[in-house]
Structure prediction request, 117 residues.
Amino acid sequence: MANIAFVVARCAKTSGGFAIRFEKQADSSWLATRTTPLQEQATAREGYGATEVRGVMSIAPDYSGCPACKAKSYFQCGRCSRVNCWDGVTKTIECSWCGNSGPIEGSIKDLKGASDV
Prediction:
């Protein structure tokens, strides 16, 4: 099982692509530690979506946030299951992938990512 996974996300404001790096912790939870800009065309070629991040997820205090707007959190769309950045304050969100909008609620149970051991 991978100890590091990268999940593809988009900026909710600019739709710019980026990857969130998750590190598996000793208690099997996942910690979002940093982000990096990403060309979406490369995601299939690089194997993004091949690994599942499942279980408790949290964000490191020094998490770098969205490369475009600097938002320090993220949400998973209830319709398409893709990830977008989130400012942690806005109560009504819109998915930059599929356009779905609504109140932010619930918690994330699993994400698809690429592994790097």
The mean pLDDT is 88. The chain has one domain: 4-115.
